[in-house]
Amino acid sequence: MLRGLWKLTWLEIKIFMREPLGVLGSVGIPVLIFVVFGRILGTQAERVSSDVPRAISVDLPILASLLITASTVLSLVAIIAIYREGGILRRLRATPLRPYTILTAHVLVKLLFTAITLGIMLLVGRRYYSVDAGVPLVSFTLALLFSTVSLLSLGFLVASLVPTARFAQPIGTLILYPMLGVSGLFMPVASLPPMLQVVARALPLTYAVSLLRGIWHGEGWFAHAGDVAVLAGMFLAFTALSTKVFRWE
Amino acid sequence: MTGQPVVHVSSVRKTYGRTVAVDEVSFDVHAGEIFGLIGPNGAGKTTTMECVNGLRAPDRGLISVLGLEPRRDVYALQERIGVQLQAAQFQKRVKVREAVGLWASLYRKPVDGDRLIDQLGLSDKRDAWFMTLSGGQKQRLFIALALINDPELVFLDELTTGLDPQARRAIWDLVRGIRQRGKTVFLTTHLMEEAERLCDRVAIIDRGRIIDLGTPAELVHRHCPERTVILVTEEPNAAERFRAIPLVQSVSAEGPQLTIRGLRGDLVAQVIQCLADHRIGVVDFRTEAPTLEDVFLKLTGHMIRD
To answer: Does the distance separating the beta carbons of B98 and A14 come in below 8 Å?
Structure first.
């Protein structure tokens, strides 16, 4: 029963658009970072040897994509915390709206804005990077949305556990950015110290990076079935766990 | 009162950890009445109400609402009840009309949302954001949301807390209007004046237990039957005359002002009779009757805490 899902989703989109700062934060900032990085690395790339720009042009889209994902997850954690603290969740719960309808609506809104941000980035990115015609953009977008959903479930778990809205953002940040550090994006997971390798393998972002990089390279979904399976498994596990510990008020 | 009670609660108990929030609570709510659960904050009003409307599960006891079992049939029940929650909030930037529209989409047989907005006096706030509404307007919106599915039973939890007296009175009229449309209202309040003016019957709850239940007048009569007449007279031996009335318990004088205390309502009639019989001229005359507040004080031994 998803009665009210579209209405609620549409309402949440409108409410989100009415907060200019929020739109700027979740759409504008990742694009801005992307452009700044592009400028710095783009001009450097022309000067140094021909191997370097290739490495950069491969990783930057993935870093940028993950920045979108990170801001998506953070804003979900924040909004759930704010809604809970403000008694909005409680109010919604006393209606025929099912709990998962409310969460699904928020995920849809977040995914929509993730896709929009990615689209803008691709448009802006053309100025700095000649995106290879062989890059499967549709598959890449799907892979990014899939990774985002998986990471959002981790966001649910954090949102379920943080006591107040004020803690939501910093705790989310504390979890997300170190995760980005060991995800294999900046250095291969195999080159990390053994302890960190164990940590990296337990975190969804590592698999997201592997999947996104592979798809960008044109390796195809089958080559990354393992990543997809792990991300799907983590999604199921985190969702199941967060429905157990979720507090509505 | 005909037929089955709309709400039947029997020996309900609810604990949070070691704290017993509600203990052995039993009462019925009848069709078409405004029933009030009254008591100080923390007495167990909200917990009781949320057990009845299905938001919480009691540890023990039996609850039946419109013939349904609230926890098991929560979704069936939600189609037939309207709920306003204590200190509820909404997304800051949602418009009145959008909130009503969303609510209307959630129920099978919603009433006309625009008409409801008009009826609750929110016509010119239709396109206003929630965050810009006054406390009274917010509460009226929440009442509108509670009425969107044309419910048979409406739950109102601390509806007027934090409102100024004017907004409070406007809300009272709205609640009476809900009863007039044949619906049953179950409300909680810690304002004794609100209970006295609005409720057909009240249950007084303190520390998780129901102390007594009845119409406000019954409760006052049962627990605080004393009446007081205060009058100002120049007549020197008036006090003696009043002391002779059998119902009078005490007469105290403070200059020309006499305070006459006694039992039962006909004390006042007898004092007036005495004034007439002895041609005692009075400059001022007023009576004081106990209120629910006095009943509460007497029954619990403490003041309502805000």
So the answer is: yes
Q: Contact B51/B26 with Cβ under 8 angstroms?
A: no
Q: Which residues pair with B91 in a beta bridge?
A: none
Q: What gap in Å lies between CA B154 and CA B147, rounded to an integer? A: 8
Positions in chain A short of pLDDT 50: 45-56, 58
Q: Which residue, among A151, A19, A163, has the nearest Cα to A85 in the 3D structure? A: A163
Cα gap B145→B223, rounded to integer Å: 38
Task: Give dist(CA B267, CA B272) in Å, integer.
Answer: 9
**From A79, which residue of chain B is nearest by alpha-carbon distance?**
B91
Instruction: Look at A19 and B93 and tell me if their CB atoms are within 8 Å.
Output: yes
H or E, element range at A25: none
Q: Choose among A87, A94, A96: nearest Cβ to B79.
A: A96
ipTM strictly over 0.90?
Answer: no
Can you state the angle between helices A204-216 and A51-85, rounded to 10 degrees? 140
Run of H or E residues at B206? strand B201-206
The number of beta carbons lying within 10 Å of the beta carbon of residue A63 is 19
Q: Residue B175 — pLDDT band, cuts 50, 70, 90? A: very high
- Mutate which of B73, B105, B161 to test chain A, going by most A C-beta atoms within 10 A? B105
Q: How far is A80 from chain B (nearest CA, A)?
A: 12
> What is the C-alpha to C-alpha distance for residues A179 and A194, in angstroms, rounded to an integer?
16
Q: Does residue B172 have a pLDDT over 60?
A: yes
B278 phi, psi to nearest 5 deg: -100, 10
Q: Rounded to whole angstroms, how far apart are CA atoms A200 and A206?
A: 6
As a whole number of angstroms, the distance between CA A104 and CA A110 comes to: 10
Q: What is the CA radius of gyration of chain A?
A: 19
DSSP single-letter state for residue A66: H
pLDDT per position as a tens digit, B43-79: 899 999 999 998 889 999 999 999 999 988 888 899 9
Report residue A50 as tokens.
């021909």
- Min Cα distance A26 → chain B (Å) is 18
Q: Tell me what pLDDT residue B176 has.
A: 93
Residues of chain A contacting residue B78, judged by C-beta atoms under 8 Å apart: 94-96
Give dist(CA B6, CA B31) in Å, integer.
Answer: 6
Helices A225-245 + A137-161 axis angle, to 10: 30
Q: β-strands B7-16, B19-29: how paired?
A: antiparallel
